[in-house]
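Can you give me the bound-state structure? Components:
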Amino acid sequence: VTSRARVLFVDDEARVLDGLRRSLRGWRGQWEMSFVTSGPEALDILAREPHDVVVSDMRMPGMDGAELLTLVSHRYPEVARVVLSGQTGLDAAIKVAMAGHRFLTKPADADRVAGVIAELTVGADRPHAAQVRRIAGAVRALPTPASQVAELSTLLAPAEATVAGTIHATAHNVGLTAKFLQMATSPFFCPRGGTTSTDSVVNLLGLPTIRALLDTGEVLWSPPSWGPAVEAYLGDVVRHAVATAYLVGVLASPGNRPYAQAAALLQDVGVFVCLADEQAYPMNDGIAHRDVGVELLRLWGLPGPIVTAVAERDQEHRATAAGLGIAGAVRAAHLLVQQTASRDPGDGPHEDELAELMAHPQLTVQQTDWRRAADEAATRALQWYPREA
Amino acid sequence: MRRTSVARILVVDDDPAIRQLLTDVLEIEGHEVTAAADGQAAVQTLETSRPDFVVLDVMMPYLDGYDVLRRIRAREGGPVPVLMLTAAAEPDAAARAWADGVDYYLAKPFAATEVTNLINGVLRQAETSTG
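Here's the bound-state model for the whole set.
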């Protein structure tokens, strides 16, 4: 048994803290909980003792929650940041979206608060857990290659932006997809929940919220340090992700398609995190970008099936009679797209596995030439995001 | 420790024994289960709620499993994964299920653990390091 996780609650209303203390009493065996009424007090405690999770109110006199959590993100990126807020205006909501990992609504539903904290405190004993959490925790929004920033900014320009155009842009961009899913899975932004597809996420958040997010300049950005070599490498990563998402959009079963497409697009999300974190990247001894990516998606609360499919992308998949599932569909589409870039298709290291997946009745029933479909997906991805001459 | 990944599951089967069995084992796993005794009841339930997962029997009076599946697929608000349960006696049951666009398929008779393992496998949160 590992030591108890440390959780810090911050709210200027003592009544709210009392309520949390009472309703979370049953968790004292798992967590060591502290309760403070202001941002400066919270920072004092964090400076004295390492913590796993901070749960903070947004509206507080003096230092507000956004300010506190932004400071926490710089000083202690390994601490998971949970926002617990009442209804706010759009400006404040956008600050919430950038400062926190998870967003919960007031009045606090104790089970929900406990559930989120429990999710954020599992797995702390994994190898490299602390370093992986530090790199993933620092992320406020994912970067995008500079050439794509220009393209997407045009597509999302205030005068021209339509729901359809915004969905199109989101479905092709790793950073926007991750950020919107992070927001859409939280009751703060989508009280009714139940989002699965990029279409429904864009519709649920609405264009004004998306516009306000874009206006922060933080969600479509490119690190100034990225040179042509990084851009070219990320171009290949993006094209592979987009092609896999196209392909899995026809290959996965209808009910699994939205999560499968999101997972395909986010399959190498860790590459973006690691390349943007200049301090992390050169010395990432033993840290795999996939672990960092999976940690980010977990921190951000993305749906389990998406996280699992990303985590298992490079694991050999044995399909069962019950169906390929999301992870199986993403794995199959990934291998098929990877083959299109190979000089000797049909002779790769995963050929037996791929042949077995292709022979699954779920895929054979469609009577599609999947290798050809993969070629077409790769060609479309190249059209969307051409290689630099 | 309490489970954190609770899913809302709709179980549709006209056999009360199977309905009860699935409800019990899925509730033990911590899921919120709604049971419907036939296709008509399932369609009514789906009008007001959004399950995360549907377990659907094929052979039911009035509206069969495929009728319900078509209604589920025609709904707005994002697709829902469906596990179809088919009778072993039915020839080409699996082929029909895949052709009609189910997401998961099990032939009867099945062990309750097959259903819970499958659903937990689908809905679980990745917790292990990929190394």
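A couple of observations. The two ends of chain B are 26 Å apart (CA to CA). Chain B touches chain A at residues 1-2, 4-6, 50, 72-73, 77-83, 94-95, 98-99, 101-106, 114, 118, 121-131 (CB under 8 Å).
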